[in-house]
Amino acid sequence: MSEFIYGIDIGGTTIKIGLFSKLGTLINKWEINTNTTNFGKNILNDIATFIKSNEVPLEKVIGYGFGVPGPVIDTTVLNCVNLGWNQVDIKKELSTVLQNENIFVANDANAAALGETKNGASKGFKDSVMITLGTGVGSGVIIDNKIITGSNGAAGELGHIKLIHDNGLPCGCGNNGCLETVASATGLKNITCHLLNDSKKISTLKCSKELNAKMIFDAANNMDELAITAIDRFTYYIATAIQIITVSVNPEIVVIGGGVSKAGEPLLNKIINHFKNIGFSSVKDTKIVLAKLGNDAGIYGAAGMVKV
Amino acid sequence: MSEFIYGIDIGGTTIKIGLFSKLGTLINKWEINTNTTNFGKNILNDIATFIKSNEVPLEKVIGYGFGVPGPVIDTTVLNCVNLGWNQVDIKKELSTVLQNENIFVANDANAAALGETKNGASKGFKDSVMITLGTGVGSGVIIDNKIITGSNGAAGELGHIKLIHDNGLPCGCGNNGCLETVASATGLKNITCHLLNDSKKISTLKCSKELNAKMIFDAANNMDELAITAIDRFTYYIATAIQIITVSVNPEIVVIGGGVSKAGEPLLNKIINHFKNIGFSSVKDTKIVLAKLGNDAGIYGAAGMVKV
């Protein structure tokens, strides 16, 4: 009898592999390195080799879920700069070697959002949005316990909402003024550098290559006024993204995750305060919470897609 | 055998009643006045009286769909200023008198979006968004052929996206800087008045109570530079809303409806041009089209909700 599910989160540096029970309980997890050489051609082989060498025989596996850092339609990754991939149909590549047709694929931010719904901060809520604040801004929209992928796999690309209409900074996507340019770790640095260049305020911070989000949060904790202003703007932009998503799909709960969310409750409270000021009347009470699963959200969500 | 469906669109001035076949073909339609006196207490009675006096016997009716100008959860309208209603459960109020439990209710903009999917501009597309540009801005999000209502009935309230962050105009919702303040008929007038007050450009237009969207479009057609600038900004804001929705839920098609959309292809082309400039790369080719059903979209969508 099949009784196990694999949830696999393929990142640019490591691949996280989780073994789950049929009911979605995490039994064990591993990490292997992502081999991005040769256009990432070995990545799927490496995963298959690991799984076949694992103690669980293939016939005991119900199915496999994958999270990948790129847009996905059905089981096909459209492109994945971090992995060196162009179009890759993961199901087609792996179904024979894993002797399993029950293979599901999602964008990693979408998988993380589903993971938090399956076992984390949004557990028990059927409609949720997760915003992942890292180097960039990822997000996932869950409606009726399912990931919304959209017609081009671009649903939940909230990081690319055009938010700044005059003199917006260039974004990695080719546009400028995207949410990501002001609401990610990089965005916080951008705001801080802008303030440092633009204002006469004395600050302990300097706009340099080394400046990072943690340094800015630390400075704010030490009452550095410029850092406080920077974080105020930064959290306003995040609140604006939440304002937009609450009048677009009106989720029950918004989950804030990613490296930046390690700043914790003080960050969250600033976001909530801004949101209370700008939120549409009937959605002002939308729950806004911190993610719970950290780096495991992806494997939970990947496994959560598998039909049992 | 039951073979008919009623689709009913309750507006602040008139109630549109459509009789549809089981397959969704419109057989006949009528309009009755909306009696908003006494907090709209007679509205549902008036509808029931009309239907009972109609030639189709109640037992031949499969079910009823309603569109209403307010937020809806399940079959309950939460509030409806235009009708004088507070909370009204339409199913509870009408199921006995109509001898039918198959009653469905949606916000009117959501119903219109579904109507265009059932028989209009977005027919054949399972994921679509309709933006209705009238006195205000309404919208509806359809995913997998179903209306997304959200947890407070506020999904598809794109008119209340906060778009202007500095010196935004007050919106009817109590906030300021909402999309509706710059992307509705009123919004176009707002932009034009702002330009008239602010610039030295010579224009045939004057900012007065009488100024309306049609006058501004006419002036632009007569090469009035200020009117052309106003419409350029106006269409940019609409394109921005489309930019946002395409990275949020990534529909296959966006439908532009409402009174303002009567400006037709020239308006549409300006919106598309702006969208091509600011759209996220993978969704730049999202179809943007004009609505087809006009005032009938609501009854089509209302009927389209009924389970057959």
Characterise this structure:
- The structure is a homodimer of 308-residue chains.
- With 308 residues, chain A is α/β, with parallel strands linked by helices.
- The first copy, chain A, has ten helices and 13 strands.
- Chains A and B meet through helix 8 of A and helix 8 of B.
Give a brief rundown of this model.
Two copies of one chain form a homodimer. In chain A, 34% of the residues lie in helices and 21% in strands. Chain A has ten helices and 13 strands.
Topology:
The structure is a homodimer of 308-residue chains.
Chain A lengths: L3 E7 L3 E8 L4 E8 L3 H4 L2 H11 L7 E8 L3 E2 L2 E2 L10 E2 H5 L8 E5 H12 L8 E6 L3 E7 L2 E2 L32 H4 L1 H14 L14 H9 L3 H24 L4 E5 L6 H15 L8 E4 L6 H8 L4
Parallel strand pairs in A: 1-4, 4-8, 9-12, 12-13
Antiparallel strand pairs in A: 1-2, 2-3, 5-6, 6-7, 9-10, 10-11
Helix pairs in contact in A: 4-10, 6-8, 7-8, 8-9
Rg result of chain A: 20 Å
Tell me the fraction of residues in β-strands of chain A, as a range: 15-25%
Approximate shape of chain A: globular
Order of helices and strands of chain A, N to C?
Answer: EEEHHEEEEHEHEEEHHHHEHEH
Distance between the termini of chain A: 12 Å
- Please estimate the helix content of chain A: 25-40%
Poorly predicted sequence stretches spanning 5 or more consecutive residues of chain A:
none
Would you tell me the structural class of the helices and strands of chain A?
A: alpha/beta
Could you list some keywords that capture this structure?
alpha/beta, 10 helices, globular, 308 residues
